[in-house]
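MARVEL domain-containing protein structure dump, as promised
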Amino acid sequence: MLWLYAVRIVQIIFGLIVLALTAYVINTFEYWWSFSSTVDFLLFLGIWTTFLATPYLVAAPLYAPRLAHPFVIPAVEVITMIFWFAGFIAMGAELPPAAGCTWSTCRALQAVTVFGSFEWVLFAVTTYFAIVDLMNHRTSGESAQKTQHNAHLGV
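structure tokens r here:
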């Protein structure tokens, strides 16, 4: 599962890129995008991914296993994946065609949309593995309980 840590690092880096670009857009105050709720949502996603979700997904299983409940890890993955999907689709729907996007704020939002789509793909992959791990955990937990129960029946 060493590849998972590499993916988490990329998720944090992409989250920082989205955070920086959306902060730049909000700071410009030149265009209507500076006041868009979609840009605000993408700023939230950058903060959510970089400082909350991904650090929890990395640190909880290693340092606080009691906080890494088998249902919480996939829930955080699914929520984050859905957030990124909604964010990059909403931003892509608001942007003008590529030929009409000639100023720096618009180009920054194009980059945010691209990095948001990459984040969605990365979280879709990690969500899949988290759900598979949950199913394996539930299956092994049920069989272990049945084995223990059957072993005690004869005693």
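Helices lie at 2-28, 37-63, 72-94, 104-153.
lmk if u need the other ones
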